[in-house]
Amino acid sequence: MAQFNKGCGCSLAALAVFLLIVALLGYYFVWPWWEKRRLPPPSGAALEVHVLDVGQGDAILIIAPEDKETKQRKVVLVDAGDTGRGKVVIDAMKRYNGDHIDLFIATHAHADHIGGADEVINATSIKSVLDSSVPPPARPGDEGAANQNGGSRRGRSSSGSSSRRNTAELPTTKSYRDLLDAIGKSGAQYIKAEPGQKFELSGGAVINVLAPIQPFFT
């Protein structure tokens, strides 16, 4: 019986020493490694990201945390949905107390992303517009393409699908022109998007620009 107790005590002592060694290794090696990879602590302020329901397309309202000194919150709008959907964006801004736009980001010139932008810009106080500045290429049916081809691309006089397809105005091109017109009338600062740009918002929030990167593709 005494031999059993003695053997058990030795095993417990060995286990304790092993656990102590593991703890020391973890403290001196694993913990510093983990500390370097931990996410920074939260600032305590709320960053609001509202993905708006504009149907087909995209519109994202971002409200940065409050600045500790000015007590202001910067507002960013990424795209504005399709043509005729600007009111949805405007109503959402009112609902979330976004009475202005510090930065509007036009990701690309497709109508379902910037079609409603002119309506929003015309109805809102806006400071700056960040644009990819890559207009859509001319395509059959666009007035630019028609001019380049001497007006040869015309649909048949019948009401067939070919006539509708060739004579219809290309939504992307018109939307892009409307966007540029609205920016010019608003007096907002126009900024061409380039990789490496950084925009500091309130509350420590930052926007980093990653694209467009040449060569472009569509």
Describe the structure.
- With 218 residues, the protein is an alpha/beta fold.
- It contains 7 helices and 8 strands, in the order H-E-E-E-H-E-H-H-E-H-H-H-E-E-E.
- It has 2 domains: 1-38; 48-208, Ribonuclease Z/Hydroxyacylglutathione hydrolase-like (Metallo-beta-lactamase, Chain A), CATH 3.60.15.
- It has helices spanning 2-37, 86-95, 111-114, 117-123, 143-148, 161-167, 171-186, and strands at 48-51, 60-63, 75-78, 100-106, 125-131, 189-192, 198-200, 206-208.
- A hairpin with a 5-residue loop joins strand 7 and strand 8 (206-208).
- The N and C termini lie far apart (84 Å).
What is the share of helical residues?
25-40%
Compute the number of structural domains: 2
What is the succession of H and E elements? HEEEHEHHEHHHEEE
Average predicted local confidence, pLDDT: 76
How widely separated are the two ends? Answer: 84 Å
| Main β-sheet description | 6 strands, mixed
The proportion of strand residues reads 15-25%
CATH architecture of the largest domain: 4-Layer Sandwich
Going by CATH, the homologous superfamily of the largest domain would be: Ribonuclease Z/Hydroxyacylglutathione hydrolase-like
CATH class of the largest domain: Alpha Beta
* pLDDT < 50 stretches: 139-172
Global shape: elongated
Tell me the number of strands. 8
What Rg do the Cα atoms give?
A: 29 Å
